[in-house]
Amino acid sequence: QQQVKQSPQSLIVQKGGISIINCAYENTAFDYFPWYQQFPGKGPALLIAIRPDVSEKKEGRFTISFNKSAKQFSLHIMDSQPGDSATYFCAASSPPWRNSGYSTLTFGKGTMLLVSP
Amino acid sequence: NAGVTQTPKFQVLKTGQSMTLQCAQDMNHEYMSWYRQDPGMGLRLIHYSVGAGITDQGEVPNGYNVSRSTTEDFPLRLLSAAPSQTSVYFCASSYRGGPTGEQFFGPGTRLTVL
Fold first, then answer.
1. Which tens digits make up the pLDDT trace of B77-99?
2. Does any CB of chain A come closer than 8 Å to the CB of residue B113?
């Protein structure tokens, strides 16, 4: 059962345009929603994250919009640049494992973004 | 700090062979995890550890073994490699008290099983 659904699988955007990637989740126990960025041949790296009590978070050109009632969240990349070309993963964090403080991450399947010059 | 390091970068195995993927971190993180990444599948959790001597299974643990004898190291063992284990493997670490969901990933090991 896929708990985090991500779309689209791939996306081509012109330089200067807005890139939008959407995710939907099923488990209402998820309590943190990070986005990871991965360049070819590299490991994923945390880009931006949001908690469910906030509807929007902005960091530079990157914005997360969160709709708790619809169980959906999205990443918007404003003024997209060729350097933003990468694979983006949304994820959802489960409550800590027992009393350890560790939270497991459930990832979407990823979106390959290409920003054309 | 080197962060999270993984060795080897590439490996080719024959079916039935065993091997260990190495992972080390120098950030004194309590938590470490192993993921596999397959095309169109995202990252799936194999095993994780919340401290030395404490490990647990993730979503896809079959065919893999882990142990955590030190804070720094978290090796992943393939007991008898199968073609279905062809994948890119990522190790990640995170720290107690850090932002939930923030994990630091290594550069990955690309494994091919023939």
1. 999 999 999 999 999 999 875 55
2. no
